[in-house]
Amino acid sequence: MQCFKQLMAGAAIVTLLSFSISVKAGPGDYAGSYEADIYDFAPVTEVIPIYTDIQVRTPRTQCRDEQVAYREPVSPAGTLVGGLIGAAIGNNLGGRRHGRYHHRGGATVAGAVVGALVGNQISRTNAPVYYTTESRCRVVDEFTTRRELVGYDVRYRYNDRAYLTRTDHHPGDRIRVRVAVSPAP
Description:
Shape: rod-shaped
Strand order of the largest sheet: 5-4-1-6
Oligomer: single chain
Radius of gyration: 52 Å
Number of helices: 3
Largest sheet: 4 strands, antiparallel
Strand content: 35-45%
Mean pLDDT: 75
């Protein structure tokens, strides 16, 4: 038991010694072992806003009124009448050749076809025309340019030296700076 008490007392002494050494060790006692950020403020001497131009595409519907001509639908009557007249003419012309009567079927059919085409064309040409106004629309892209603030170039002085940095906000009349302290050689 005596041995155990001595062992515990030795362990306590070693723990206290290591604690007192770590408490006494402060910044600068061991190079690189302690890094604390130190901040200060420096007066701002100039703030320059930085802009960029952005092209914006906006789709827009563009409409205009247009006058449009329409013909009435063609009546089948013109085609029918033309076909009948053509068939009659073909039948009459195909029936006599050198004073004799021949087979009239081919001439009748040809006359009917030609007459129907002519009758259809006459019906189309004579069909009434009417006009109406219709709105014609299409989508067009409209481009505009917009200036956008992207940051600030800030000039400031610290310890009689001039510096320049870019920030995303206006710093005001002073700017916070990180100060690095290291031992002099």
